[in-house]
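Predict fold of Enkurin domain-containing protein; 105 aa.
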Amino acid sequence: DYGQVPIYLKKRKEEIQKAQEDYDAYIRDHFQRGAMQCLSNEERNAILSGLKQNWEMLHHEYQGLSVVTDTAPKKNRKERMEAEMKQLERDIEMMEKHPVIYLSN
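Predicted 3D structure, encoded as tokens:
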């Protein structure tokens, strides 16, 4: 028995392979039923250009703000615009980073 793989390890390996096969079958089934759809390049590019356009408009408004934020409404507006621009930047980066995007219904 020296140098042989123990039986419990062989069984464990078979269980892992079975679980992986079950998971792969589950994913294939979801794709076939249409529960997940792939975003086409045209849709992806349209969304990406829309995000960039929104960022440009927001950036233009941000550049028009006064430099001195002496009142609370000015400060709140500036902070809100900065947060929106930061979120748009993250969304744009995510869309550019991943060429294939799946949508779940």
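The chain has two domains: 1-34, 38-103.
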